[in-house]
Amino acid sequence: MSIACTMHTIKCRHATRSSAGFTLIELLVASTALLLIMFVIFSITDKTSDMWKNASLKIRQFRASRQAFDSMTQRLSDATLNPYLDYEYPLKSDGSPDTSKAPTRYVRQSELRFISGYAKELLGTPSVHPTHAIFFQAPLGYTENKKYGSFENLLNTWGYFIEFGDDMDHRPPFITESLAPRRYRYRLKEMMEPSENLTLYSYTSGHVDNDPTKPPRNLSYFTNPALTGLTQPSGLTPSGSGKEWFTTPLQPDRKLTRPVAENVIALILQPRVSLAEENLAGTMLAPTYNYDSTAVRTNAALNSRNQLPPIIQITMVVIDEASASRLDKGPIPPDFGLSTLFQDATKYDLDLKTLETTLAARNIGFRTFTIALTIKGAKWSRDQVN
After folding, report:
1. How far apart (Å, rounded) are the C-alpha atoms in residues 331 and 249?
2. Closest CA to 317 of 368, 262, 260
3. Which residue from 142, 231, 235, 254 has the highest number of Cβ atoms inside 10 Å of its Cβ?
4. What is the pLDDT of residue 94?
5. Contact between 229 and 208 (Cβ < 8 Å)
6. How far is Cα 136 from Cα 158, in angstroms, rounded to an integer?
């Protein structure tokens, strides 16, 4: 009886233990479910990691562009013309002022300059210098000689433009082409003329050939700029402006330019007044994007003569390095269709959308930076007709 009971107990226990276990099929189903859950978790983790890496890569890629954009806008906001009122005299037969006669009125004058517009007009070679460029003076205190370093507000001539080319001029000497091939890219260039070597006044003050009997160099005093003896850029109307004050610092032997950001393919600069001023004038300040502080306009509300634009809308389009590397075909610049864009300011939104659509269609990663920048030194006046 005891043995039977023991056996019965064992049997009972065995039966109980058997009913509490899992079958092989149940174990296989559970394992499969666990594997599926782990696969989903790992997939989500992997995708999240990839997204984080891509986002971090894009942030790093465009960080230099953002820093360059911020630096450019900060310096541009300090632009100055330092205008003053001076006599305007009747003109001689050659178009120069006749100071032997009584002045006719007071007009704005300045020896400083501000010019922006098509880079192809200001610098030439549209494929190498796409979209727009800008040059101006600002009290930035940049000097090459350390003994002038304490003068923080010395005047400089400054400028920004896009240029396509290789990187050989910007490499350390020990990185030769045999170590690393040339990298052809569009780059945002910054031109910086140090205060101690400022050439501006040799073109905007005094007289032609330094001869007091000849017309003044300052185009602001002059209705016929051709008589100054300075070259004129085409496409800047009606009076034009001499270019030597910024083309001289741009000469390669001066070595006053440097790249501040790579893969910048478009720089759009639109000088503007307030919307109320534009409505009053019935047109935009720079309908073709060109602005010249020596140009004369008969509409007093939009007369740029010796005036800074109160607002500049700045747009910069940058592509990522992966796309730029894929498009690198040596000295042949990639064509983004920019030659027909950003020539009519009324079509700005349409042109920008066209460019962004073109880049997206070609699977080119890009980022667009935009700001409506207020120039601190601008004091717009509607008092002077020409």
Report:
1. 25
2. 368
3. 142
4. 61
5. yes
6. 5
Q: pLDDT tens for residues 254-269?
A: 899 999 999 999 999 9
Q: What is the DSSP string of 256-306?
A: -EEEEEESEEEEEEEEE--HHHHHHHTS-S-TTS-EETT---S-GGG--TT
Could you give the percent of the chain with pLDDT greater than 70? Answer: 83
Between CA 107 and CA 87 the distance in angstroms is: 6
Q: Are 162 and 317 in contact (CB under 8 A)?
A: no
Report d(CA 259, CA 162) in Å as an integer. Answer: 9
Return the structure tokens found at 155.
């005047």
Closest CA to 267 of 360, 163, 138: 163
Domain ranges in the chain are 66-374
111-129 as b/e: b if 16+ CB within 10 A: bbbbbbbbbbbbbeeeebb
User: Which regions in the chain score pLDDT beneath 70?
Assistant: 1-20, 53-59, 94-96, 207-208, 213-216, 219-241, 386
Region class of 342: left (phi > 0), else alpha (psi between -120 and 50), else beta: left
End-to-end CA distance of the chain: 129
Helix (H) or strand (E) holding 207: none
pTM of the prediction? 0.80
**Bond from prior residue into 238 cis (ω within 30 degrees of 0):** yes
